[in-house]
Amino acid sequence: MLEALKQEVLEANLMLPKYGLVVFTWGNVSGIDREKGLIVIKPSGVEYDQMKASDMVVVDLNGKVVEGDLNPSSDTPTHIVLYKEFSDIKGIVHTHSPWATSFAQAGVSIPAAGTTHGDYFYGNIPVTSRMTKEEIATDYEKQTGDVIVRTFRKENINPNDVPAVLVNDHAPFTWGTDPKNAVHNSVVLEEVAKMTYHSLQLNPHNIEMSQDLLDKHFKRKHGANAYYGQKTK
Amino acid sequence: MLEALKQEVLEANLMLPKYGLVVFTWGNVSGIDREKGLIVIKPSGVEYDQMKASDMVVVDLNGKVVEGDLNPSSDTPTHIVLYKEFSDIKGIVHTHSPWATSFAQAGVSIPAAGTTHGDYFYGNIPVTSRMTKEEIATDYEKQTGDVIVRTFRKENINPNDVPAVLVNDHAPFTWGTDPKNAVHNSVVLEEVAKMTYHSLQLNPHNIEMSQDLLDKHFKRKHGANAYYGQKTK
Amino acid sequence: MLEALKQEVLEANLMLPKYGLVVFTWGNVSGIDREKGLIVIKPSGVEYDQMKASDMVVVDLNGKVVEGDLNPSSDTPTHIVLYKEFSDIKGIVHTHSPWATSFAQAGVSIPAAGTTHGDYFYGNIPVTSRMTKEEIATDYEKQTGDVIVRTFRKENINPNDVPAVLVNDHAPFTWGTDPKNAVHNSVVLEEVAKMTYHSLQLNPHNIEMSQDLLDKHFKRKHGANAYYGQKTK
Amino acid sequence: MLEALKQEVLEANLMLPKYGLVVFTWGNVSGIDREKGLIVIKPSGVEYDQMKASDMVVVDLNGKVVEGDLNPSSDTPTHIVLYKEFSDIKGIVHTHSPWATSFAQAGVSIPAAGTTHGDYFYGNIPVTSRMTKEEIATDYEKQTGDVIVRTFRKENINPNDVPAVLVNDHAPFTWGTDPKNAVHNSVVLEEVAKMTYHSLQLNPHNIEMSQDLLDKHFKRKHGANAYYGQKTK
């Protein structure tokens, strides 16, 4: 069942240690088959170097395990909310990658300070509000998804244009057009967080790039008029 | 004598360079056989790449060498105090890992700033008071253990819930349910120290997570109602 | 056509991941044949581990592709401006290397704070002014070259003496006497940016070295009286 | 001639890239045969991965090349001053290792902030005064040695107790009982600089350890009453 997607999700999970985004088992990647409405996700608390494609767990959009011998990631309810609400995305990553997590712990969003950011994220990477006692008490992992979605709605951000978020006091989630693209965005997020941390120490004021430059770089790589890479030849 | 524990302690010691926690010989791991009341510990000043299980030194709870040709770690009296006073622990690690040591040198405790911390440490990681002239003068390494224990009593911290401490002007100790678990906690401590250092530079105020979120994350992984990983299936 | 230069440009491009200057495809190196007036440059958006010498693209100084099946780097117009205006240089590198980019994002030039800097760069490494709406709107990549050239003219800097620049809100460019020398300067720039960032945190005032020391170190390695290395024996 | 010392100096030089202390050729190690009054030193500007023992250059204490086809390191006159003035040392290292160089560029000495420091350096690691126009103009490399020696005399520091110095606006020198011991001290200096940099950011005040703790740790490893390691058994 969904063997190709399982393999893809396995490989995307193995990219996390390769790119230095995780310590131990602190991260998970999922992918979705939109037609079947089924999610493939990493099992909870399993070491990366022992995982096989057949360990991947299949769950439906109600969180019911459809196939698999292992518990799915404890963050599965967060993934489900995001797949339901962000209807174009087909892969999700959660890590505690250190630079992005440093911003999340500080409750500080990542300003769009340069073209590296603008090539991938069309605006600041938002941090959610802190979760309330009530949100923590019941269905915590689902509520984590809800607070992400509320942040994007309130700040009027298109999740396809800014495929990353910082959950306050916690860590980042990223997403993308498939599981590996979501990991790619995680790598970029970490690099951008690292550079912008240092830019903020050098110059705490006036760090954001102009809207013109942001438009230029994002649209150079995305949308109908993109001309970066080999695609448009 | 205690061959399995020696092998376990050797392997735990070899994890220190693997995870980048030590330079040269700056670190040691021990384990205890609670029934026999015997500790197995790394010899003093020996290179990691030359150590064998048979080099591990067996000492009793009075610090007497029971077996072994080499001097035990000079920090052995500190380990002994901790094993005596923290009755559930079965492994101890001492390193000068750079991020945790930066906090220790600064005399600053590590606030519980996010869920990475809360998954492992149920509250701030305390820093001891500075050692006095008298404590340094006599039985210094034993007194190092005493100042750790006094810190946990004074701040009313359960060492099973916060398996790490920063010795002021010195470096961290961690412990755990066995030697490798203690090393695991050392790796997490270093990662948490790194991230929280950067969070504090981004936002020096109001960095601590809520007690509700701390409860949620710690208890998600520890105690009767834990549901993280594969254990509860 | 230009097979030797293609090989040289390929090897110079492969130095970028080797020295940790790039993530994914974020960087490009070119070289020029001054007699023929032809530039060899990396293709746009191609992975380093898949590139062959035959993938390198040959363009003329009007930006016309003379040979090659792939699109040249989208930064090609910037390279062309620099080759035209800085008449001695024969290799150019663009990366988003993290330390130099942190200064570029902050809009802060890198002061000549020590002899490591003075051995390679005869004065501060300048940051350009921010690009205007008009510069971004039309021929953006060419205008990026123009703003670099204007910066060197306005600050009266000889590009042979300071073979690096920070484009504001963007990232560095470096150049040199050939493609590998330009990469060498990129590596030095990154190391200098890292060290001077930390020096500025330790001591934000009075960080610049004396003109005498700068003269001494730069001229120890460059020009008629150089005596560093084996060349003068 | 001095074949064993050449091999030792070669191996010590190769430790520099191994421990991440150098980029390109930015570093050199020498050793001395005190009886013969001859120094063996790295040639100037030669790549580490191509160096052979036979490339090492033999110079006398007047700086005259006694054996060797290559130019000796341009820093040779600095080494000579240190060997003449610090009569117990038998190995010297110069690098631009990034953390120590960050302090040197900032003109800030490294305070003895913790036991890692105290295990190796009996007090703060001094920074020299800035070199004057006159010192730079004539015999610059010899004058660099002189300014180091003056710093130790003026601050009344025993070079055997503090085997490291930061040359202002430049970078560190370390020394030791033989070439590899000098490299060992370079590695420790870099680790201590890194940690104390971060401690100073966390707590800029009152960072120095007590004299009692410094005495305890330094003397635990050095002198007649040392008890660290296996030597005293």
From TrEMBL, chains A, B, C, D:
Catalytic activity: L-ribulose 5-phosphate = D-xylulose 5-phosphate
GO cellular component: cytosol
SUPFAM superfamilies per the UniProt record, alphabetical: AraD/HMP-PK domain-like (SSF53639)
EC number: 5.1.3.4
Cofactor: Zn(2+)
Enzyme class: isomerase
GO molecular function: aldehyde-lyase activity; L-ribulose-phosphate 4-epimerase activity; zinc ion binding
Family listed: Belongs to the aldolase class II family. AraD/FucA subfamily.
The protein's name: L-ribulose-5-phosphate 4-epimerase
